[in-house]
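User:
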Amino acid sequence: MNKLHKIFLLALLFATTVFYGQRKQEHKKIKALKIAFITEKLNLSSAEAETFWPIYNGYQEKKEALRQRGRTQIRSKIKEADVLSEKEAKVLLEKHIRFEEEEEALDKAFLKEVGKAISAKKTLLLLRSEGEFKRQLIKQYHHKKGGGGYR
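Assistant: Predicted structure:
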């Protein structure tokens, strides 16, 4: 039984590693598609691209780190809201509000910074393009899963 248990654990570890490896590859593929999509929509000159992409990539990294922190510190606990005491709920709600404010501040700082690298019109096109990309991605996901989903 001990040997069987070890084999099971190794198989589980291998399957988990493969799964996360595939997810990482999917994430990289989506990121590359997003870069191509935004590049095409904004029609950046080489000088604009040289200043824009480091700003954009830095913003995306900060935003992802913030989302990760929000998932671990807040959103996972909100799922258990029914078992929290009122005091714990208030503390969590305050954390959530601070998180939302931090996210808003990050977005504002990014828009100000990117507005110096590209025109205001291209900044607005960026915002629109990000929304379009998300909608296309969701549409493609629903189509791939064989369902209609929401429209």
